[in-house]
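Margin note from the TA: students keep mixing up input and output lines. Inputs are the sequences; the output is the structure of the whole complex. Example:
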Amino acid sequence: MKNKNIRPSNNSSLFNRLMRFFGILSFVWILMLLEFIIIAGWIADINDPIGQNVLIRIGIGIFKVGLSGILGLGWLYLWNKIVKLYFWRNITEIDKK
Amino acid sequence: MVFGIFGDVPINLILIGLSCSFISLISSVISLKIIIPILKKRGISGKDVHKHDKPIVAEMGGIGLLIGLLPGLLCAIILLPEYSLFLTIFGGCIFIGGTIGAIDDIRPLKAWQKPLLMMLPALLIYYIMYVLPIFWPTLFIPVVGMTRLTIVYPLLIPLAFTVCGNTVNMMDVMNGTMSGSMVIGLIILTISSFILGSSLGLIFSIILAGGILGLFIWNKYPSKVFCGDTGALAIGSGLACIAIMGELEVIAIIVLLPFIMNAFHSLASIGGLIERRDIKARPILLVEEKDKNGQNIMSMVANPEKGAPLTLTRLLLAQGPLTEKQIILCFFILTIFSGILALSTSWLIVIMGV
C-alpha cells in the first residue's frame, strides 16, 4: 500500500513517524489510568469526618467531582501541550533544513 | 460462560450477532450499488480534491448504510426478543443521527445548530430511563469500578451524542479514513464487550460494524462514494449508544483516541466550533509532483500557518509530505494501536475485578 514514489522530506520512514504517535497515545493512556488510580485511591476516599451533616456531605461530593474534573482537564491540557510541542518542533526542523 | 464483570455473553447471541452483521454488510453493499448511480444522476456529488484528476464522487453514502442496517437490525429484533426494545432504541438513535446528517448534507447547518440537533437521539435513551423505566446507565471506570453519578450522568448523555457525532464527522477527511477506522474500532468494541460480558455492547457493535464494512467497500481508496454527514452522524449516534447502553464509555474513549486527538486538537487550535467551510487556513496543502514514470501524483504537506487547525492529518505531515494512501494507512494503524490499548484495558478490568 505504501507509495514509494514520494519520500518523506526529512527521510524518516513511515514507521518511525508512527512510533512517535504510539508514544503519545501510550503516554495519554497511562496518564488516564493513573488518574483513575488517583480518583479511586484518594479522591473517592475523602469522607465527612463527622459523618452526620448532610450539607457537608453534599459539599464533599461536589468537591470530589470538581477535583476529578480538574484532573481530567489537566489530562487534556497536557495532551494538547505534548502534541503542540511535537508538531511545532518538527515544522521548525523542516524549515531549518 | 461467565467471563466478564458485567455477566456472561451467551454463544447464541454471538452467532445471531454475526449473522445479523453479515446481513447488514450484504444489504449495505447492495443498497449502495443501487444508490450511487442515482446520487450521481441527481447531482448529489462532489470533487475528490486529493486526487490529481479531481474525479466526481457521489455524496451522502450514509443513506446506503441506513438502508443496509435495517434488515440486520430487524433480524436481530426478531431473533432476540429480549433485546428487541434496546435494538429499536439503538436503531432509532442511528436513524435520528442520519437524518440530521442528511439535512446538513442537503442544506448545510450552522456550526452551532449541528451539535444542538445531535442531542436529539438522547431523548430515546431518556425514554427508556424515565418513561418505561427499564434501563439506568451507570458509568463504569477501570480501577474505580461502578460509579453512582445519578444526577451528572443523565445530564451528560446528550453531550455524548454531540461529541461522538462531531468527532466521527471530523475524522471523515480522506477516502475511507472514517469508515475504515470505525470498522476497526467497532471490531475492538465487540471483542471488549465479549471480554467484559456486555451483551448489549456486543450485539450493537457487531451489527453496526457489518453495515459500516459495506459502506467502507465503496468508500475505500479510491472512493466511489463519500459517507457525507449522513453517514458520519449516524455512525456517531450509534457509537454513543454503544458506549452508554453497553456500559463501555471508557473503552470507547480509548478505542477512539486517534479520533479524539483529531477533533480535540483541531478545536483547541481554532478556538471552538467552526464549520469546516468557514475555516480560512486549511490544515494541509496539496503538492503536485511527478513520479519515476513521469506521471502526475498528489502529495500533501502540513500548512505551516499558525491559524490552521491542528488535525491528525496535519500532525502526521509534520515530518514531511505523504500521499493520500500513506495517510489513510497511518489512520488505520493508529486505530489498531489504540484498539490494542483498549483491549489491554479490558483485560486489566477483568484481572483486577474493577
